[in-house]
Amino acid sequence: MLVKKSLYFCLFFLLAFSFSGCSTNNSNLKFIAFLHDDGIKGYSSQWFDLSDGLPRDLIPEHITEDFQGNVYLTSEFSGIFRLNKGETKWENISSPIFKRRTQLPDVHEFRDISALCIDPENQSRIVIATKHTLYESKDRGKSWQRINVVDNKNSYYFTSLALEKDTIYAGTSFNGILKITSKATEEINNGIPKEFYVGPFHFCEEVSALAIIDNTLYAGFLFGKGLYKSEDRKNWQKIDIPFSDTARASISAIYKSKNSILITTSEGVFEFNPSSGRVEKFPLKKELQEMLRDDRVNIIFSKAEGENPALFIKKNTWKYSAEKTSPAGNKRALYVSWGMIDKDFEGFLSIVERTGFNAVVIDSKDDQGMINFKVDSKIASEIKAIKERDITSIIERLHKKGIYIIARHVTFKDKRLYEAYGNKYAIWDKVTNKPWVGLPRERWCDPFSQFVRDYNIEIAKATAKLGFDEIQFDYIRTPTDGLVGRCLYRYKTESDTFKSEILGDFIQQAARECKIPISLDIYGFNAWYKFGNIMGQDIKFLSRFASAIYPMVYPSHFGASFYKRYSEEDRPYYIVRDSAIRAIYHSKGRTVIRLWIQGWDYLSPTWGPDYILKQIKGVHDGGGISYSFWSPSGDHSMVDRALSNR
């Protein structure tokens, strides 16, 4: 074997010891590890704290080093840091231009540094990504300039980078691989893994690693999609990696090691021989395998030593404890419409009790902006948005049965507020200079308006006072249908604010003020890929503030071509299972993932009790516990048949 295996054996043997070693110097730093509950640790001759200069709440994203042995660490919301060789204190080399755009006066943090690359031919040149933007430093991080990406769709979510002279190769969350020059941006995706949606329309798998080795471009992917190579920078060939868990296994980084290539993954290290085409699991002792399975450790970094390259391993699993620690956890819910409440609430309650559900979802504010029961709100009264209905008896009855009550609150889709005050808070049409209209029945308010956000939070707080246990914000996004390119957000205070950032402001403020769990609905595909700047639903970012997230993963709503490799009978199971896996990973396990699954017959050729049971099994096999059944009418007779054998 070309690599000195004893180095890696030593690494994982030492990792098995306690991480509470004494402090020491950094003259011979060998390893760095990130523990969920104990931060950044280093190892030279023993383990020691390596957090000097780092924020206490740091969440690292990537660690690498230059040829001189200086280490660079990027983070989710704390910026980028450098640890110079021989030193013990990290230096923050972030620029103010990386700052999160926010309208919250007390929030001072950075955008997610989602990708990093050091130029192999000029170690002073560093390129980073902050999700949708690229920046360059030519002086090791002393100064930074934004890179103009020609033909940028403004939806690209950069996840990995490789540099070759003046060309930047960028991996993305769903657009595949880009070749970026000063003159053009080209998608070079022929042969990479894709999921087809309808006809030729598709999503590319997230590119988690890029590397240029011996004039060949290599790309690594998330969720078992493996390793690919391109010699002509246009067409790609797959290199099979023998993963054991093809639903979860992911590639962290790709390195040159003399005559072979090392691929670090969530399942360990693999070695690829370009001459023979063989891929072998890099033989590691039992201690390594145990450490890779250890929930405490998420990131492992081994510095380069001699002919041994640096190795960065990022596990594709997070400790998912929110179900047990959050009051929003371990909830199985049924949605009940007001039509069903008025028509047959007794029948609905019988289903809840027979089937063992412990939560219900009730509409509080609907998509016309009407509040379905009496609340204390001056603004809602002014715009005549309150229905004279008393919900007290319903709440009391549900609580007596031990039922957790969730208020579904439609947020920015609000006809009442849109039309009020002379359309003052409507999204504007920059072509007609009038209030913007998307689909005929939809009216959208501007999420960048503090008044709009405050109004929704006022209603949520008033709803909580009535006895609801959780506020679930729906339609927490910007519009996606109609001539959305003409939308003008007049209340945007900084022109380059990401849509996800203003939604983050809203959820962060709501969570502070409402005093009960706050949750939000997102499109199902936003649990699969990072679509942050299209409609704002960035699951990774928003999961920092929400107690629960509900990806809407109804199997019938995934395109006709999606997951066609599975039978019609099994397709619902695999869609739900993989949605759970991805949602938990992207949210880093820090919020409850309560999938919305399908409780009504819609484009479902195998509809029946088994359809229901396979969705539930998909939740559990994907690592989830909580789920909610959606049926627009509130009719859950099929759920009843499936779970109570009626």
Tell me what the structure shows.
This protein has about 650 residues and is α+β, with helices and mostly antiparallel strands. It has two domains: about 60-285, YVTN repeat-like/Quinoprotein amine dehydrogenase (Methylamine Dehydrogenase, Chain H); about 330-645, TIM Barrel (Alpha-Beta Barrel), CATH 3.20.20. Helices cover about 20% and strands about 25% of the residues. It has a nine-stranded parallel sheet with strand order 37-36-35-33-30-29-28-39-38. β2 (about 40-45) and β3 form a beta hairpin. α12 packs parallel to α13 and α13 (about 610-620) crosses α14 (about 635-645). The longest helix is centred in the middle third of the chain and has 18 residues, at about 340-355. The radius of gyration is 26 Å and the shape is globular. Residues about 1-10, about 10-15 and about 20-25 have low confidence and may be disordered.
Rough outline: globular
Q: Strand-residue fraction?
A: 25-35%
Strands of the largest sheet, in order across it? 37-36-35-33-30-29-28-39-38
Terminal-residue CA separation = 62 Å
The tally of beta strands, per DSSP, is 39
Uncertain residue segments: 1-10, 12-17, 19-23
**Number of continuous helical runs:** 14
Count of distinct structural domains: 2
Percentage of residues assigned to helices? 10-25%
